[in-house]
Amino acid sequence: MSGAVMSAVFYCKFMFAIIFLLGSAPLFYVIWMVLRLATLFMSRRTYERGDEFLYSLYQKMVLFFCENLSDLQMIFYGDLEDLTRKKENVILMSNHQCTVDWMVADMLADRQGSIGCIRYILKDSLKYLPLYGSYFRQHSCIYVKRSGRFQKDQAEMQLEQLAANKTPFWMVVFPEGTRYRPDLPSVIAKSKAFAEEHGLPVFDHLLTPRSKALHLSFRHLKKSMDAVYDITVGYTDTISVRDGKVTRLDAPTLTSFIMGYGKCMHIHFKRLSVDLIPEDPEKFDIWLQDRFKEKERLFKRFYSDDSSERGTFDSGGGKRNRLPLVQTLPAFLFFFVASLPFWSSISGLVVYFFMAVFCSVVSVIWAILQA
């Protein structure tokens, strides 16, 4: 096959993925609104079961593009058997580099059969995102403001409700609060200055973790949860070697992964028993700093100038694990078939466009009223 033909195929695959992912959001929102209305006078758990199924269907469709269609290689280290042994209620904490990190939680949860139960601790500004913002609130995700503006009372109320309703959860938290980006040295410098000022460990490959949201989640969900999953994510594409020296690059974006540029992802997985994690705020903060010291150790190897260590989290080289196509293809086919009546004619596209605008406006107004 000629280079021109291959480029054309690559471009068509990318454009189809982008159009389909963006275009399916209004359809998902409409289906969710129908579900919410249909279960309005039923028990909360009845609605949650339907919502978890619908959310898992949508996220599996996303994984079809991001993992299966993109030919992504995933290399796992650590306690992978603990992940796949049984379904669990957990807090998942991770380092944060790029938008793909959100997909990593989906990739792990789907391997356990818990993808519909993912909940996030999110930046407060994201609640105004059309369609997704109001939906995530209804999906038991929690919006918080950073640092001194942290809304403890609101977060506590939502966490208590989650525990009281016995809602299954994978609560995803990024303790760094924002992404580690080498192209933003001022953010990295500010993080290091904060650590030095407060007598905390200074990291070269991570931002200083903040414990407020994580500790609050742990304290309110402790009796309902089975474990804390501590994951460390590294991207091979961030390694640049010149004259034997390694420079760290920005992590690939979600768009890059869909295009097939992000070819390899390394995930270190550690299951931590709830009983071994201190609840006292000061001891919890020390525990969190220790966990990030371990992440720093992993990254020092990953970005080592030594070629025998570089690009891996341990000497064993990890295990490759690919999500079977059968787990994601049905979800893609569902949204594809459901979209056909709208996308197959001009009148259908017009209806779909106005439906998208209407749902976007409704979702933003809803978010404002709930603020």
Number of helical runs?
12
Order of strands across the biggest sheet? 4-3-5-2-6-9-1-10
Largest sheet: 8 strands, mixed
SS-based structural class? alpha/beta
**What is the mean pLDDT?**
88
Unreliable parts: none
Order of helices and strands: HHEHEHEHEHEHHEEEHEHEHH
Shape: globular
Task: Explain what this protein looks like in three dimensions.
The chain has 12 helices and 10 strands. It has 371 residues and is an alpha/beta fold. Strands 4-3-5-2-6-9-1-10 form an 8-stranded mixed β-sheet. Helix 1 packs antiparallel against helix 2. The mean pLDDT is 88.
Per-chain topology:
Blueprint: H1 3-38, H2 44-69, E1 73-78, H3 80-84, E2 90-94, H4 100-112, E3 118-123, H5 132-138, E4 142-144, H6 152-164, E5 170-173, H7 185-197, H8 212-221, E6 227-235, E7 239-242, E8 245-248, H9 254-259, E9 264-273, H10 281-302, E10 319-320, H11 329-343, H12 346-370
Parallel strand pairs: 1-9, 2-5, 2-6, 3-4, 3-5
Antiparallel strand pairs: 1-10, 6-9, 7-8
Considering the chains and any ligands shown, give keywords for the structure:
single chain; 371 residues; alpha/beta; 8-stranded mixed beta sheet; two-stranded antiparallel sheet; 10 strands; 14% strand; globular
